[in-house]
C-alpha cells in the first residue's frame, strides 16, 4: 500500500517540522559538535593523515549527525504507540510497515537537511574534500543507507521502549557509538583493549568509506563491509520491528 | 451485505494471563440503532470493543461485524468500521483539516475527495472556524469532535465509541449525543461504552450491563428499570442510632412490602443517614412501610418517594455504583 506509506511520510515530515525543539537540536547539535572538535580539540589532534583536522573530522561529524538524527525515530515511534493513533491507523487497515515507514521516511528527510547544513558549515570553516561527483554520490548513498538501517533499528527500539523517555535512551546510545571508532581520532591512538571493538563495530567501515570517498583515496573493501553491516542491521530491524509491533498490539 | 444485524457476538472469551477479562459475551446489535455497553471500570468494556473492532483477537467465541468475521475477515471488517477510543487519536501538531485529510487518504480516498470530505466533516462538527489551527490548541470538546470526525471519514457502517464523553463538559456531551443520534438515523450502528447511566438511558436503544467480563442484563433502558421495583422510598434517620435501628428493620421488612419484581434490598448511605427501600410507590404501601420501619414515629426525620433509575438496576445487578457525574477534564 504505497499510498498509505506516502501519506504517513508526509505526516512524519509535518510533525518534525512543527516540533521546533527537536528540529533545532537535530540541526544545531551536529554543527556545534563539529565546531567544538575543530576549534577546541583540533589544534591538539594530529591525525597523521596529512590532511587538516577539519577535513579529517567532517565525515565523522556527518556520521554522528546521521546516527543521532536517525535514532530520534525511536522517540517518534514510541510517542505514537502511547497515543491512540496507532489503533486508529490499524482500524483503517493500515499495518505496521506503512506506520513505521512513515517515521523512517521522515527521518531520511530530516537527515538530508541536517547533512546539508553540516556540509555547508564545514565548507565555511575550511573543509576541502577532493572527491568528484562519483565520490560524492557514493558517499551520500552509503550515508543514507546507514540512516535507513539505523532509522528502522530505532523504530524497533521505539516499539521496545515503554515510554518516549526510555526510547530517547537509544538516541543517547547512537550519539556515543561513533566515539570509539575512527570518527574523531585515529583508532591507533586509543588504548589497546579498545581496538578490537573500535575496528569492528559497524560505524568504523562507514566512516572509513566516507572519508576515503570524499578525500578521493583508496577505500579497499570498507564500503562493502559497511553495506553488509547496513543490510544486516536493516534485515534485523525489519524482522524485529514486525514482531514487536504484533506483540505490542495484542 | 444483506441482513439487518450489524454486530453479532457469540461466547466471546479473552484472558490476559490468569486474568479472565471476557467470560462468554453474547451480543446482537441491529443496524440503525444505538447500543450501549454499561459497566464499571474493569468490567471488560474496552476489551469487548477492541475484539469487535479487530484490534485484539478473542481466545474463544465468534463475532461478525458488518457481516464479516472479526478474525478471518479482519481487513473487510476494518473497512466497514471506525473506532474512537478513550484517548483522542489525533495529532496535536497537525491542524484539524490536515488530520482529517490524512485519515481520508488512509481510507483510500483520492487527494481531492479527502479534501472535500474533510471540509464537509469540519462543517458538520462545527470546527470549520478552527480548521487550520493545530489540534493541540483545541479545547477538550473540540478535540473529541475532531476525533469522532476522524473516525467518520470512511463513512463506516458500524461506529465504535469507547467512553466517548468521559472528561467532557455537559455542553460538549450534549453535542456529542446529538451526533450519535444523527449517525444512527443515518443508518449506522453505534456501539458505545459508558460508565454513565444517564448517557445509556438517553441515547441507547438497547443497553447491556456488563460486570466481571459477563453481560449480566440486556434490554431497553425501560425494561431494565422495570426489573427492579418501580419506586424507592428514601428515609432519612434522625441520628446515627436511629439509622442503625432503621437499617436493621429494613433488612427483614422489605420483602413483605416491596414490589414483587426483583429485590435489590435496601440501599444504605450511612454517611447521609439515608436508607432507600424498594416500593411500588402507592400511598398504602408507603404508609405501611413507614409504620413497619418506625413503629414509634421517632426514627424517621424525613422521607421521599423516588422513581427507580438505571442506577438502582446497576446496583441490583452488579453490586457496584456507577459514576454519576463525568469527571471534569
UniProtKB/TrEMBL annotation, chain A:
Chain ranges of the ABC transmembrane type-2 domain: 21-248
Pfam family, one: ABC2_membrane
GO molecular function, one term: ABC-type transporter activity
Signal sequence, start to end: none
InterPro entries found in the cross-reference section: ABC2_TM (IPR013525), ABC2_TM_bact-type (IPR047817), ABC_2_transport (IPR000412), Nod_factor_ABC_transporter (IPR051784)
GO cellular component entries: ATP-binding cassette (ABC) transporter complex
Membrane topology: Multi-pass membrane protein
Keyword annotations of the record: Antibiotic resistance, Cell membrane, Membrane, Transmembrane, Transmembrane helix, Transport
Biological process annotations from GO: response to antibiotic
Compartment list: Cell membrane; Membrane
Chain segments annotated as transmembrane: 21-41, 53-75, 108-127, 133-160, 172-194, 224-245
Similarity section: Belongs to the ABC-2 integral membrane protein family.
Protein name per the record: Transport permease protein
Species annotation: Streptomyces roseolilacinus
TrEMBL record, chain B:
Enzyme nomenclature, EC number: 7.6.2.2
Gene3D superfamilies on file: P-loop containing nucleotide triphosphate hydrolases
Biological processes per GO annotation: daunorubicin transport; doxorubicin transport; response to antibiotic
Subcellular location: Cell membrane
Parts forming coiled coils: none
Keyword set includes Transport: yes
Cross-referenced Pfam families: ABC_tran
Domain ABC transporter: 7-237
Membrane topology per record: Peripheral membrane protein
Region feature (Disordered): 254-280
Entry similarity comment: Belongs to the ABC transporter superfamily. Drug exporter-1 (DrugE1) (TC 3.A.1.105) family.
Protein name in the entry: ABC-type xenobiotic transporter
Native source species: Streptomyces roseolilacinus
Amino acid at each position: 500500500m504505497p499510498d498509505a506509506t506516502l501519506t504517513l511520510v508526509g505526516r512524519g515530515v509535518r510533525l518534525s517540522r512543527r516540533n521546533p525543539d527537536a528540529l533545532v537540536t537535530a540541526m544545531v547539535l551536529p554543527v556545534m559538535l563539529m565546531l567544538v572538535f575543530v576549534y577546541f580539540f583540533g589544534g591538539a589532534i594530529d591525525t597523521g593523515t596529512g590532511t587538516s583536522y577539519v577535513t579529517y573530522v567532517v565525515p565523522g561529524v556527518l556520521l554522528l549527525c546521521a546516527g543521532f538524527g536517525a535514532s530520534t525515530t525511536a522517540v517518534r515511534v514510541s510517542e505514537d504507540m502511547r497515543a491512540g493513533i496507532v489503533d486508529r491507523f490499524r482500524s483503517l487497515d493500515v499495518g505496521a510497515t506503512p506506520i513505521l515507514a512513515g517515521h523512517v521516511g521522515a527521518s531520511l528527510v530530516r537527515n538530508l537537511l541536517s547533512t546539508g547544513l553540516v556540509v555547508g558549515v564545514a565548507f565555511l570553516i575550511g573543509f576541502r574534500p577532493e572527491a568528484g561527483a562519483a565520490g560524492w554520490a557514493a558517499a551520500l548513498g552509503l550515508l543514507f543507507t546507514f540512516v535507513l538501517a539505523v532509522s528502522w533499528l530505532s523504530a524497533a527500539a521505539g516499539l521496545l521502549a515503554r515510554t518516549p523517555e526510555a526510547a530517547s535512551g537509544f538516541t543517547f546510545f547512537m550519539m556515543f557509538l561513533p566515539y570509539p571508532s575512527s570518527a574523531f581520532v585515529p583508532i591507533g591512538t586509543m588504548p589497546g583493549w579498545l581496538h578490537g571493538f573500535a575496528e569492528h563495530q559497524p560505524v568504523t567501515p562507514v566512516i572509513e568509506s566516507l572519508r576515503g570517498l570524499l578525500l578521493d583515496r583508496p577505500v579497499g573493501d570498507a564500503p562493502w563491509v559497511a553495506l553488509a553491516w547496513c543490510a544486516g542491521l536493516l534485515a534485523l530491524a525489519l524482522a524485529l520491528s514486525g514482531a514487536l509491533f504484533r506483540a505490542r498490539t495484542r | 451485505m444483506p441482513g439487518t444485524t450489524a454486530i453479532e457476538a457469540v461466547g466471546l472469551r479473552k484472558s490476559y494471563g490468569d486474568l479472565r477479562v471476557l467470560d462468554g459475551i453474547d451480543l446482537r446489535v441491529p443496524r440503525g440503532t444505538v447500543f450501549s455497553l454499561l459497566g464499571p471500570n474493569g468490567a471488560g468494556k474496552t476489551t469487548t470493543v477492541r475484539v469487535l473492532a479487530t484490534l485484539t483477537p478473542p481466545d474463544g467465541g465468534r463475532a461478525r461485524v458488518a457481516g464479516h468475521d472479526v478474525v478471518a475477515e479482519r481487513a473487510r471488517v476494518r473497512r466497514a468500521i471506525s473506532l474512537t477510543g478513550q484517548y483522542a487519536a489525533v495529532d496535536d501538531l497537525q491542524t484539524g483539516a490536515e488530520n482529517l485529510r490524512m485519515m481520508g487518504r488512509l481510507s483510500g480516498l483520492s487527494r481531492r475527495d479527502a479534501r472535500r470530505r474533510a471540509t464537509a466533516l469540519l462543517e458538520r462538527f462545527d470546527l470549520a472556524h478552527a480548521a487550520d489551527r493545530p489540534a493541540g490548541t483545541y479545547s477538550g470538546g473540540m478535540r473529541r469532535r475532531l476525533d469522532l470526525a476522524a473516525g467518520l471519514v470512511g463513512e463506516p457502517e458500524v461506529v465504535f465509541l469507547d467512553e466517548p464523553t468521559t472528561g467532557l463538559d455537559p455542553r460538549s456531551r450534549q453535542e456529542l449525543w446529538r451526533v450519535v443520534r444523527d449517525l444512527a438515523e443515518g443508518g449506522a450502528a453505534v456501539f458505545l461504552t459508558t460508565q454513565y447511566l444517564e448517557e445509556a438511558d438517553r441515547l441507547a436503544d438497547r443497553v447491556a450491563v456488563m460486570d466481571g467480563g459477563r453481560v449480566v442484563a440486556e434490554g431497553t433502558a425501560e425494561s431494565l428499570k422495570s426489573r427492579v421495583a418501580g419506586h424507592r422510598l428514601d428515609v432519612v434517620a434522625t441520628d446515627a442510632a436511629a439509622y442503625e435501628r432503621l437499617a436493621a428493620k429494613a433488612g427483614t421488612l422489605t420483602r413483605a412490602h416491596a414490589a414483587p419484581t426483583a429485590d435489590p434490598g435496601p440501599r444504605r448511605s450511612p454517611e447521609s443517614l439515608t436508607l432507600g427501600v424498594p416500593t411500588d410507590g402507592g400511598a398504602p404501601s408507603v404508609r405501611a412501610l413507614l409504620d413497619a420501619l418506625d413503629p414509634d414515629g421517632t426514627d424517621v426525620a424525613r422521607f421521599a418517594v423516588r422513581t427507580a433509575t438505571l442506577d438502582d438496576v446497576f446496583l441490583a445487578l452488579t453490586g457496584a455504583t456507577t459514576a454519576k457525574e463525568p469527571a471534569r477534564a
